[in-house]
Structures are given as structure tokens and as C-alpha cells.
Amino acid sequence: MELNNIVDDEYFKSYFNLNVHEVMLKDKPRTLAYKNAIELNSIDFQDKVVIDVGSGTGILSMFAAKAGAKRVYAIEGSLMAGYCSQLVQHNKLDSIIKVVHKRMEEITDEIEDEKVDIIISEWMGFYLFHESMLNSVLYARDRYLKDNGIMFPSRADIFLAPVNMNKLMDKKINFWNDVYGFDFSILSEPALQELPAPYVEYLEKDQLVLKENKILSVNFNTITCEELEDIIINNIDFKFPENIKPKTIHGFGIWFICYFDGSKGTVELSTAPGDPETHWKQTTILLPSGIDLEGGETMTCRLQMTQDSLNKRIYDLNLEFPDDEEQEMEQDGDDDDDEEHEESCDCLKCKIIREHSK
Questions:
Q1: What does the DSSP assignment read for 224-280?
Q2: Which of 105, 110, 112, 122 is catalytic?
Q3: 122 in active site
Q4: Is the pTM of this model over 0.85?
Q5: Which CATH architecture has domain 1-122?
Q6: Where is this region: Disordered (predicted)?
């Protein structure tokens, strides 16, 4: 518990940095999604009470105030609250927006004894859940939101796709094969191990070996903090067509789309490859080495996202393949499976499992 408190302190300190907020404000797909959603559904904000969880500079609170909100509570745990308060006053919105310099969970009597109509927050992290700020938003929802209240964003989908990372491999791994005429290839494996895990960078649309698979849908009106502790997604299937061109799989890319559902319509915020770039980029779980793809195979994955026990702000991502469990069942001797694969089998599943288990 004490360690997680230290982690939280460092987390909030990191947001007292104008460079961080500059990046987020200059992220037009991100900021305009909120602006467009609030303006499109301004009828939902007129004369309503709003909480902005993690308000930062206060930009979302200002959007809500301009849309006609009666009162906006801008909750900010970092020292950015001071700047936020000044910006609210400078823009003559201090009669509507009340800035509270506290973490959401520390609020006592700063919010008047009333339920609020809307909760807005830009809490999303890499692969949606990184930073675990959603927990604070759900705390606000459970304590302050009316039964028919609105959550912005309202829901999200997470997607997974096998990806080719040839450019990354050439730049960071294959480079070692020929260094000024010398063979440094023994450093290729440690170089791969030193890449950030997971790897966060932009993916081009043509890096997707197959069409993405929607693996999880999340409703922010109903999901609980307990459900966020350990997220397990089973039976993620990918079918490789017979006529697919030969490609290499280096890993699996993850991204998300958020939806803002209001009375007048829904606005999407996409972080998908091929859509306008955002500061979330895409997250890739790299395999130990590339796997050559042959058509006609079906592959089943299992993804587990678990909050780290020492740092709840991050998740441990674990990609598995169900053959591991199937082999354990076969060893029990209860079944005589005539489809058991030889140790030297070169099918796609077996190649991935061999590489992934190294």
C-alpha cells in the first residue's frame, strides 16, 4: 500500500508539466472528439452539473461550461490545479467552474450535497487501461453520478491484430548483422530484449497482417474496479486465408476506440492504425522472433491484462496460446488425440508456441 502511495505521488507530479499538457492539447483527434461530443450533445449539458475528473488545464471543463452547464467541478490532483484556476478566471468562467485541488478519492465537502448529471474525463492510457485512472472515474461515478447520468466517454472497444514490424527489425535488430563489415549478430537477441515491452509506437495500416479482431467491449456506466484488476480475454481467433501473401508476424498490435453517447448522437475517438495519429499511438506485444506466415491456418490467442501488484498504474500484458493447456490435458492420458502435433511440427501454431515459450 505504501509503495502504491509513492507511485501515486510520482504519477501526479508527472502531470505538473506543461510539456505533457501541450502534447495532449495539440492532439487534435483527442481534444476535438471531446469538443465535438459536448457541442453535438449540448442539450445534455444545459443547466446540468458536471464533474471533470483529472481536469488538467481545464479544457474539458471549459467546453462543458460553454455548452451551458450550470456548475462544473474541475477536480485536479496535481499542482496543475493552480494553473487551471488561473485559466478559468482568465477566461471568465469562474462563476461556473469550481477548481478543486484534490485527488478524486479525497473529495469530502468540496462537491455540494447533490448528485451530478455528467462525468467527463480524459483518463485513457496506452491500450486503454494504462495508468489506471479509470478507477478514479468509477469512484466518482459510484459516489456522485445520478442513476440516469451520462459518462463521457461512455464506452470503448479494444482491438487486436497480428502485425509485421520489418522496419523496426531492420533498424534495431538486423542492424547488428553487419557493423562496418563485422558480424555483431550475437547482439541481435539482447537488442530485441531491450526494446520496451510492450512497444508503443505508430503502426501503419499496411503493417496489419490480418484484419483486426474486436476483443473487448467496455461500458463505463457498469464496469467495476474489481473487474479492472485482472482482465482475461479468451478465444481470440485469427483465420489466415489460403491465398494470403507470405508475411512475417513480429507481434500483436492493440488499440482502442472510445464512444461518446449523447441525446443527439455519438462521437468516436479512434486510435486505430490508419486513422489520424494520437498521442496514444498503438501498443505492440512483440514475439521473441518473427514467425513466417503460411495461409490456411487458424490461430487462437488468450490475452491477460493484470494490474501490477507493485505499481497499480501499469498492467502486465500476457499473450498466450491455448495449445499449452491442451498439451497438459493430453499428458493426463485421458484422451488419445489423433491430431497431436509432432515436436518438429512446422504449422503456424506450433512455430508461435515454440518461439513464445523460449
A1: -HHHHHEEEEEEEEEE--TTPPP-EEEEEEEEEEEEEE-SS-EEEEE--TTSPP-TT
A2: 122
A3: yes
A4: yes
A5: 3-Layer(aba) Sandwich (3.40)
A6: 321-344
